[in-house]
Write a structure and sequence with these properties.
This protein is of the alpha/beta class. It is 41% helix and 20% strand. The strands form three sheets. Strands 3-2-4-5-7-6-12 form a seven-stranded mixed beta sheet, sandwiched between helices. Helix 4 packs parallel to helix 6. The longest helix is centred in the middle third of the chain and has 16 residues. The chain is globular and about 60 Å long.
Amino acid sequence: MKALRDCYGEALVKYGKENEDVVVLDADLAGSTRTKAFGKEFPERFFNVGIAEANLVGMTAGLAAVGKIPFANTFAVFLTTNGLLAARTFGSYSELNMKLAGAYGGVSDSFDGPTHHALEDIATMRALANFEVLVASDGRMVDQLIKHAVDVNKPMYIRLSREGTRDIYAADETFEVGKAKTLREGEDVTIIACGIMVERAIDAAEKLEKEHNVKAGVIDMWTVKPIDVDAIVKASTETGAIVTVEDHNIIGGLGSAVAEVITGNNLRVPQGFVGIADTHTECGPFKELMERYGLGVDSIVEKALDTIKLK
């Protein structure tokens, strides 16, 4: 198991070698975001702007305007708050080729506490017109998301976690933006997850079948925007119940995005929400925080069983 931030640092170096237009900016957190590897390999293409996130995103826009492929890096909570105005003006409105990589998504910056936990970033960034919002669920996906970001000329927000996950995808797996990954077929309920919650969704599905004789499907909705409408419609039709799972506020994130598809397509199915229940989270060990705020496997199982009863 490798931390997703380590996979990200390796991917930047890998694709930086292939394309000299790739440049990287950081807000004095290169050790934490793992961009220091890129800075060591390509010092002339690495810029530490200091703890000045608004400047970080503004400089990213400037580099994009002259044809570079700039990746802006800092903790997700600061990138999508202090850097929001520049992201809205230059990425959303002007459609510059900006890549915003939000490190330490969710509660993964565990001991730094509520000021550093990113619980609103997906909601914020998916509300910006023209931005893609992509959430990495394992190391292979991180690699492919960076390749996609280098290859495609449009603004993107890529959410990363400090934590690692086990391998979900094979080394030769390919990904298409706007197309979710169905990891497990279901009959009774479908669990739609993103990011580090995907492996927990898989574990919950296995537990549901083993202990409750419930066949749960699992979908990795790694592309929150554009969202895979067809996958949600298919899952709703086939299983008749949906549970969304995210390390994010239940307001405005993946759950809300899925709910918009369900209501917009008149899909009369119950939906359960697993996520942060509209609160700020405390300091503590990552695994303990996940359990405390209802993000563990047992919480997913319980929510699935409750949602099935509403069918």
